[in-house]
Design a protein that fits this description.
Elements (H helix, E strand, L loop, with lengths): L1 H8 L39 E5 L2 E4 L4 E4 L2 H4 L8 H11 L12 H14 L3 E5 L2 H16 L4 E5 L8 H6 L3 H4 L9 E4 L7 H4 L4 E6 L15 H12 L2 E5 L23 E4 L10 E5 L1 H4 L15 H13 L2 H20 L5 E7 L2 E6 L5 H10 L2 E2 L1 E3 L3 E4 L7 H16 L1
Parallel strand pairs: 3-13, 5-6, 5-7, 7-8, 8-9
Antiparallel strand pairs: 1-2, 2-3, 4-10, 9-10, 11-12, 12-15, 14-15
Helix pairs in contact: 3-11, 4-11, 12-14
The structure holds pyridoxal-5'-phosphate.
Length: about 425
């Protein structure tokens, strides 16, 4: 069977999915004396934030920072947004939790807005991106009635729990946690010529990010998402888009796949959906939703009233004008960076306010992010050489200029 060979593509130590480069590991080794009880699974920067407003944060010493990370593509409407805050406060004053055993008009209205914006039919709510993808994997297999094989992409990222981790095409994410959940194989991202060879009768779905986020803002060639749709239609497969990072307006469309006008069967969401209150969602087409009956999947906290109140406020604000603004700001920011003519930037890529800067070999993205932080600017990184720029949708031209000025100082130094 062809898929056996494909699975081998992602075997530990294979050339396609490489173990993590540990070169830069020492950078963030800060461990405060009193942090013994905290699991050391993050490389934290030695800064603690005490307050946020709009695109700004203040640390415990009162120092101000410009936030071009947005909690890793989460706080799209900035910190302490008055409308979102009021929605959560009103809910907080009434009711925090009753469980999904009872009706929820907040969930109903959020679900109908997400269905409306996606053209899909029904929504399952959970608490995070990885859970949204677990749901998508389970729903696809339920729909497939015995078919279980799901193709994902090399370099893709879908989460840290067993199913979503196994769907993730990156050895460094699996390392130490094998065996993986069976039933996944990994194809090169952006290459539709390899699809037909990957088909087998057990195949039920293809799951990809419309733009790979954690791998360094990798934009596939135009037409790729459409070719996935055509392949899925030809073989009666589900197309799943993981929009956990790209969705909720981040690229200048409500969902990033809408740039290609394709319609998937399942969309997963989290990150920006509730501007920082934990919430995830799997939006499904009617044929998928039809298979999901009471008792077959669930979550105690999923669709919590506080998170849903925040998400309803977010969806209300994510109108056409805001989406156009995100697109415009993204173009302005990318142009402004290009105009700096910085030698150590090899490539600027992305869509809307999901931007990656590929640095020249030997220039450490983590070191640059640390320097930017020292100068009062937050950005993200990916691997050794990509700076990730994920500002909130509310940034001004002055903030773009302040950011580019600091970026120039750091990268030219
Ligand atoms: C595309 C994508 N899917 C899934 C996840 C996992 O989301 P979470 O950390 O909320 O579980 C992430 C997180 O970075 C992501 O970028």
């Amino acid at each position: 069977m062809r898929t056996t060979a494909l699975r081998a593509v992602a075997e530990p130590g294979s050339s396609t999915i490489q173990p993590e480069n540990t070169k830069d590991k020492q950078h963030n080794n800060h461990k405060p004396a009193d942090s013994k009880a905290l699991m050391q699974n993050y490389s934290r920067y030695p800064v603690e934030f005490a307050k946020g407003s709009g695109a700004y944060l203040w640390d415990t010493q009162g120092r101000q920072y410009l936030d071009f990370l947005s909690g890793i593509a989460v706080t799209g409407f900035g910190h302490n947004h008055p409308v979102i805050k009021k929605a959560v406060e009103d809910q907080l004053n009434n009711l925090w939790h009753v469980s999904n055993l009872f009706e929820s008009s907040g969930q109903e209205s959020l679900a109908s807005r997400l269905a409306e914006n996606s053209g899909l039919s029904q929504v399952f709510f959970c608490n995070s991106g990885t859970e949204a993808n677990e749901a998508a994997i389970k729903f696809a297999r339920k729909w497939g009635k015995g078919r279980s094989h799901i193709i994902t992409a090399v370099g893709g990222f879908h989460g840290r729990t067993m199913g979503s981790m196994s769907a993730t095409g990156q050895y460094k994410v699996w390392d130490g946690f094998q065996p993986l959940t069976p039933g996944f194989s990994y194809l090169p991202f952006g290459d539709s010529s390899v699809l037909e060879d990957a088909y087998d009768r057990n195949l039920v779905a293809i799951m990809v990010e419309p733009i790979q986020g954690e791998s360094g803002i990798v934009v596939p060639p135009k037409g790729y998402l459409k070719s996935l749709r055509e392949f899925c239609d030809k073989h009666d497969l589900l197309l799943i888009f993981d929009e956990v990072q790209t969705g909720m307006g981040r690229t200048g469309k409500f969902f990033a796949h809408q740039w290609e006008e394709v319609k998937p069967d399942i969309i997963t969401l989290a990150k920006g959906i509730a501007n920082g209150i934990p919430l995830g969602a799997a939006i499904c087409s009617e044929k998928v939703a039809k298979e999901i009956t009471p008792g077959c999947h669930g979550s105690t906290f999923g669709g919590n009233p506080l998170a849903v109140a925040a998400a309803n406020a977010v969806v209300n604000m994510l109108d056409q004008e805001t989406l156009l603004k995100v697109e415009r700001l993204g173009n302005m920011l990318m142009n402004a960076i290009e105009k700096l003519n910085i030698d150590s930037i090899k490539e600027i890529r992305g869509k809307g306010l999901l931007i990656g800067l590929e640095l020249a070999e030997g220039v450490s993205a983590k070191a640059a992010a640390r320097k930017l932080l020292e100068k009062g600017v937050l950005v993200g990184t990916s691997g050794d050489t990509v700076i990730r720029i994920l500002p909130p949708f509310i940034i001004s031209m002055e903030e773009i200029l302040a950011f580019t000025q600091t970026l120039k100082e750091v990268l030219n130094a």
